[in-house]
Amino acid sequence: MGNRFNSKLKKLILGGITTAAILIGSVLPGQSMPDVKAASSVSGVSTISNLSSDFIKGVDVSALTSLENSGISFSYLDGTSGDFFDILSGAGVNYVRIRIWNNPYDSTSPYKGYGGGNCDLYNAKVLGKRATDAGMKVFIDFHYSDFWADPEKQYAPKEWADYSLSEKKDAVYNYTYWALGELLDYGVDIGIVQIGNETNGSMCGVGGLYDGTWNLSTGVGAMMQQGCYAVDDINSAYGTSILKALHFTDLLTNGEWYAQCAYEQGIDYDIFSTSYYPMWHGSASDLAATLTNIARTYDKKVMVAEVAYPYTMSDSDGTSNTVSSTSSLNYQDYDISVSGQANALRDVFAAVNQVNSNYKSGYGLGAFYWEPEWVGVDTSSAGTYGSGWASSTSGNYELLFSNSVNYYSTTDKGSSWDNMTLFDSNGQAMSSLYVFNDISGTASTTSSGNSSSTTSDSLEGVYYIKSFYNGKYLDISGKSTENNANLIQYSYNGGDNQKFKLVKNDDGYYYIYTGITGYEKVLDVAKKSSADGANIAQYTYNGGSNQQFEIVEVSDGVYAIKTRISSSLSCMDVYGWSTENGGNIAQWTYWGGDCQLWILESAE
User: Fold this and answer.
1) 23 has a pLDDT exceeding 50
2) Are 371 and 419 in contact (CB under 8 A)?
3) At 324, is the secondary structure helix, strand, or coil?
4) Which site in 188, 209, 523, 548 is 20 to 30 Å from 100, CA atoms measured?
């Protein structure tokens, strides 16, 4: 997805394409049996016959961290709250896509993010690890830009702005190799890497938009190959089997031509991926036919890297939406409703799966729904956390390459996608989210039940608090009784410096008193900070919100200790995944990793 939030979308009017659509439950060419509606279908769509167990049912969740930092929370279909990745997993999602911008921050103090999720490498590491821990594979989307890259703009990163083509080729290789190494070392299970985003003849300030040559021959193909080389070398170094994807859009009019251009440039890639939006890009039957032709002609695996469809024309946050009325649509075969959205998504999955019947099994990989979580956000929060499509500083980046701001913004913006999500304006899953399971005839989890995200009523008492991650215990450094004595981890010794008393207040939060002070002082988030990395130490009790903690049982006997000062968005975290005695305990955005989980052992 590039910036479809301004004047994008030359609206891609499709000429001469087939307009017959796939009907729900109908037999597509090559299918041996009709699809049937599963008794357990939540979304109401029918199953897809001959769907492999490893068929990709993915979503792009790149903006999630910024949304959660803005105070957005998500819930299951029945309204019960839960971790976002648990909700996705319960709906059948098995893969996530995450974009990476090199440096999506303004170049002058206070270095405000450009928005769009502020999708830097660190964001990809955190989201990728959360997805991996939830049992999902990860698809990394390199834009090779500092902000949205798409067919209308492919600006080079700030640091590469003055590079020659030769230097850009080296930079693409080096950045790809380095970033993938960082992700793998962090524990992210990468299955696919995308070399450039919607690169319709341009990439990284090179090609058609800049020299009038669109066939990848003036440097775009060469840079793509450098990215592929980097993935190959990472596979050799790490023993992985990561696939290499190229990404184009406008599939039905130009897709086969771009596949031919990539072939002529000798680019050694594995997957031809495309953006395909039913309201802009034609019928699902034409999608199936075009992908089959590309797979057969060039012997490439194919997939849809981006798909979405509106469930409403209403706007929930005051920032105009990419699709704001039916007049925005060039092609429409589905109702603007939750059921219409579900049917559109189901038909895209079916179309991709037709490649496996029409050409060769394993060549139609699957599809990714683009940003199903990007619900409406207020502009103040969006500017602070980057959770809108663009912030007031994004225009500064564009001005490095243009005399005016045409595609980005000089003011903070909210979401322009809130009518295309699979969650409603309150963050509650809609029935369309469950298409991922329903196309396989698999039962979905539509409620958290009462085993997670529940604060216990019976935790008051004295405890040793053990890390679920490394087995070490919370400890007051140096057995100190002084204010600001640091909270660390240490091997068990049973001393008072490792004992903590939980006392619940009327608001349901806990004060955590320290045994080394005779339970007179408490744990405290330093300087009342809500920021990642804020230190946690011992301090005189004052009742402040920085001394209050929400203790949430996330599985049987395993807890997250969230900080009220962050509105429970952050928690106690073993800083830097330390396994050493003396490793620091800090506040960090909650994402559910083992380094953020604790076991309470009675000390009474």
Assistant:
1) no
2) no
3) coil
4) 209
Q: What is the 3-state secondary structure (H, E, C) of 428-471?
A: EECHHHHHHHHCCCCCCCCCCCCCCCEECCCCCEEEEEEECCCC
Nearest-angstrom CA–CA distance, 243 and 54: 15
Q: How far is CA 56 from CA 322, 336, 350, 355, in A?
A: 26, 25, 12, 14
Structure tokens, 123? 């964001």
pTM of the model: 0.72
* Percentage of residues in the chain having pLDDT higher than 90: 80
Question: Which residues pair with residue 521 across a beta bridge?
Answer: 540
Peptide bond into 278 cis (omega under 30): no
Whole-number mean pLDDT of the chain? 90
* Predicted confidence (pLDDT) per residue in 146-163, tens digit: 999 999 999 999 999 999
| pLDDT single digits (tens) 61-79 | 999 999 999 989 999 998 8
The residue ranges of DSSP E strands in 384-541, in sequence order, are 454-455, 461-467, 473-476, 487-490, 500-504, 510-514, 521-525, 536-540
Whole-angstrom distance, CA of residue 518 vs CA of residue 160: 58
**Residue 78 CB neighbours (<10 A):** 11
Measured in whole angstroms, the distance separating CA 220 from the mean position of its chain's CA atoms is 27
Enumerate residues 6+ apart whose C-beta is below 8 A from 599.
Answer: 465, 466, 467, 468, 557, 558, 559
CB-side neighbour CA atoms (13 Å) of 433: 29
Q: For position 351, what pLDDT does the model report? A: 98
Is a pLDDT exceeding 80 seen at residue 458? no
Residue 12 confidence (pLDDT): 31
> What gap in Å lies between CA 475 and CA 262, rounded to an integer?
58
pLDDT tens-digit profile of 368-414? 999 999 999 888 889 999 999 999 999 999 999 999 999 999 999 99
**E strand or H helix at 131:** helix 121-133
Q: Are 234 and 242 in contact (CB under 8 A)?
A: yes
Query: In this predicted model, what pLDDT tens digit does every residue of 27-50 receive, in sequence order?
Result: 333 333 334 444 468 999 999 999
- Asked if 9 and 306 count as a contact pair (C-beta separation under 8 A), the reply is no
Q: Where are the alpha helices (DSSP H) in 284-393?
A: 284-298, 338-358, 379-385
For residue 1, name the pLDDT band (cuts at 50, 70, 90): low
**Rounded Cα gap, residues 474 and 497, in angstroms:** 8
- Phi and psi at residue 592, to the nearest 5°: 90, 10
Residues with catalytic annotation? 198, 306
Do the Cβ atoms of 323 and 432 come closer than 8 Å?
no
